[in-house]
Amino acid sequence: MLYLSDLSVVQKALLVTASLCLCAMAVKVCTAQITNQLGALEIGLLNFKDGEFSSTLACKTGDEFETLCQLYNDTAETLRREKQWLYQRELMLDKVLHSSPDVLLLVNDQMYVVLSNRQACEFFHPTSKVEDSDSQANGVGATRVGANSLGEKSVGTKSLEGYTLGTLLKNKPDTLKDVLLDNREGLFTLPQDANGIQTWHMATGTFLLNNQTHRLYILKQMTRELNRQEVSVWKKVIRVISHELNNSLGPISSLLHSGQIVGQQNGNTRLVRVFHTIEERIAHLNQFVQGYGRFAKLPPPVLVTIDWDKITAQLSNQCDFKLTMPEAVEVKADAVQVEQLLINLLKNAHESGGNPQDVELVIKQTASQVIIEVLDSGKGMTDSVMTNALVPFYSTKANGSGLGLALCREITDAHNGHLVIQNRKDKGLCVRFILDRA
């Protein structure tokens, strides 16, 4: 057996050196392995920082580092599922926002728009030349600013993000500016345009997003809803009045018939004449009640392909007009209700005070709509008359019922269409009935 004491000094030194080398090599191998493992963990954590959670660590060392790798992989899986869930939720939220009929606008504390939906783009539609030096200076919205031939900046209509609220409100009605800039919740009306006077409701809310105060504006179009509620109230009133009148007219008509027989048997011509006058007034009242009943009980439209030749032929038997239809127009609607609408509009055109020969019926179509116009050369409508033109029972005629245009609006709403009333540039009135071809 070889003992350490039997070795020379040189041999002892060589043995110690060899031992130290082996220890150094072992330490180096372990250090390299630990360095590689820490490097892989560092890369994984950098991926986390960049929002990338798809990478995992492969480690089967059987020590504490394997436990650390497993913890990293479990965390990556959890974050990956949460990221996928957030992505799907953002897709759904984006779909809901752009499908909403309301105008949605989100601005930050510096009044820059950070989120908007399609309805907001269509509502503000800043087609006029608008220059926003603030947005250019801050480098936001640069991709949404175009230059025309004059070199002026204009805001595109695809997105409003990156522009100040003040920029979007340029050339807009003062009412809209006051409501938005003062954060006033409630109803407001906009001046008359091609679609008439519009009623809107605004709601606002504030919340923190990325440690910054944001304000959400929600503008809801209330015109059609208010009109629908107003007409619903009128219909209820008409039904009650019609019911009470019919209950009274029935017994009166029965007694009248008996009185006429008695008057004829006695040869009392004066009494017969009195009963005849009462009979005429009852017939007139019945016709009056039936007319209001048609407005109160308009049935749902039965959609069929409109035969324009048949309808225009029937209309020409009732009043004269000039027909302009450049091409065949195909649309599905309720033929009876469309004919009633045109009868009312043509009758109004003949009573407008213009030349009856100037009354014109125009039927045309676009790729998505059918447009029906009734034109006259009368004196048109004043602002006050046009404001109340669609209100039931409102009439400027001495013997008018005030239900002609109101019934036209009911037919239009039943077809999900639009009714537009405008004064023509020269003279006269244009009433436009717009139907979606779909």
Describe, in plain words, how this protein is organized in 3D.
The chain has 438 residues and is α+β, with helices and mostly antiparallel strands. Helix content is 49%, strand content 19%. Helix 1 runs parallel beside helix 2 and helix 10 (335-350) packs antiparallel against helix 12. The chain starts with 8 loop residues before the first helix and ends with a strand.
Structure described in brief:
With 438 residues, the chain is of the alpha+beta class. It has helices spanning 9-49, 64-99, 118-124, 133-137, 165-168, 174-181, 223-266, 269-296, 308-316, 335-350, 383-388, 404-414; strands spanning 103-108, 113-116, 145-147, 153-155, 186-193, 196-209, 212-221, 304-305, 322-324, 332-333, 360-365, 369-375, 418-423, 429-436. The protein folds into four domains: 4-95, no CATH class; 100-221, Beta-Lactamase, CATH 3.30.450.20; 226-296; 304-436, Histidine kinase-like ATPase, C-terminal domain (Heat Shock Protein 90, 2-Layer Sandwich).
Order of helices and strands: HHEEHHEEHHEEEHHEHEEHEEHHEE
Q: Compute the number of helices.
A: 12
Q: What is the strand content?
A: 15-25%
The CATH architecture classification of the largest domain is: 2-Layer Sandwich
Q: Based on DSSP secondary structure assignment, what is the total number of beta strands?
A: 14
Mean pLDDT: 75
Unreliable spans? 126-157
Helix content estimate: 40-55%
How many domains?
A: 4
State the secondary-structure class: alpha+beta
The rounded distance between the terminal residues' Cα atoms is 106 Å
The CATH class of the largest domain, by name, is: Alpha Beta
Shape: elongated
Widest sheet: strand order? 2-1-7-6-5
Q: Profile the largest sheet.
A: 5 strands, antiparallel
| CATH structural fold name of the largest domain | Heat Shock Protein 90
CATH homologous superfamily identity of the largest domain: Histidine kinase-like ATPase, C-terminal domain
